[in-house]
Amino acid sequence: MNNNTFGSDRYEKLLKVGEGTYGEVYKAKDIQSSEIVALKKIKLENEDEGVPSTALREISILKELQPHPNIVCMHEVIYQPQEKKLYLVFEFVDQDLKKFLDQYRKDKKLQLRPYQIKLMMYQILNGLNFCHSRRIIHRDLKPQNILIDAKGNIKIADFGLARAFGVPIKTLTHEVETLWYRAPEILLGQKAYSLGVDIWSLGCIFHEMVEKRALFMGDSEIDQIFKIFQYHGTPTEQTWPALKECPYFKPIYPRFKTADPKTYFKNFCDKGFDLIQQMIALDPAKRISVKDALRHPYFEDLSREDIAKFEPNQVHMY
């Protein structure tokens, strides 16, 4: 077996395209079919411990979420115990949303059409609805984990931090999501949180697509929460009853007043503004559900032809 092939010499590595907390990602070629795929390599550091629990969780969740037009397709899992390596084989998608948006940030002449943004948002919500209806929280939604191909088709990817949730919701780790997309209840240490963390993240992504910049750009956890408070105003237990369950909230925090939304949302249409306000509600209990977001008037002018592309495998909206 040559150094660039594995899995009975079936796949040939072509190019390393990314590296994350849990593994490296390569562009590769299926030698049998000539299909281009993405390989996520997970190194098994300790032979005695076997496959990491994070990898097992991701594989289990991905299998449950297959197939869906707006969730990345996992073709197979290849385990190589002799080399202490585990490979997840995915469909290859051209680029992620961060790289896609970077093109528009760099070139002022390029503009994302409102209808294009609307269709992208609908697809992300459609994939997220599939997750939430199966009681799975992604927990790491950010532009880098949303893939987009040359035709504008969206795929939610990287389920390494995803978790299934039950009732009651178990305590989950706070160290999730890139800072700019992290929900305030996580920043404030709330131990039990739920689907609203994904909705918050997607609201931040929505703003970035429309305004070409991130919504809250903190350089630390405390700076991030203060930037959120500078928009919403510093909460109280009257405005956010569950605030008492957030151990990191301190009475000595500055008392910020609510900001003028126009300074943050300059290019939103009225319906889009209404939707994002419900997505980034400070109190997670007041955030819109993915089901209601899909039914929001913002999407009413999407063509049936466009929506139909993502409906064949769609589950009921709970």
Structure commentary:
The chain is α+β, with helices and mostly antiparallel strands. The chain has 2 domains: 87 residues, Phosphorylase Kinase, domain 1 (2-Layer Sandwich), CATH 3.30.200.20; 215 residues, Transferase(Phosphotransferase), domain 1, CATH 1.10.510. The chain has 9 helices and 11 strands. The strands form 3 sheets. A 6-stranded antiparallel β-sheet has the order 1-2-3-4-6-5, covered by helices on one side. A 3-stranded antiparallel β-sheet has the order 7-9-10. Strands 8-11 form a two-stranded antiparallel sheet. β2 and β3 form a beta hairpin. The longest helix has 20 residues. The C terminus is likely disordered. It holds the Pfam family Pkinase. It is an enzyme of class 2 (transferase). Its EC number is 2.7.11.22.
Q: Could you list some keywords that capture this structure?
A:
Transferase(Phosphotransferase), domain 1, 318 residues, globular, 6-stranded antiparallel β-sheet, 11 strands, 9 helices, alpha+beta, disordered C terminus, 3-stranded antiparallel β-sheet, Phosphorylase Kinase, domain 1
Topology of helices and strands:
Blueprint: E1 5-6, E2 11-19, E3 24-30, E4 36-43, H1 53-64, E5 74-80, E6 85-91, E7 95-96, H2 97-106, H3 114-133, E8 136-137, E9 146-148, E10 154-156, E11 163-164, H4 184-187, H5 196-211, H6 221-232, H7 270-279, H8 290-294, H9 304-308
Antiparallel strand pairs: 1-2, 2-3, 3-4, 4-6, 5-6, 7-9, 8-11, 9-10
Family: Belongs to the protein kinase superfamily. CMGC Ser/Thr protein kinase family. CDC2/CDKX subfamily.
EC number: 2.7.11.22
InterPro entries: CDK, Kinase-like_dom_sf, Prot_kinase_dom, Protein_kinase_ATP_BS, Ser/Thr_kinase_AS
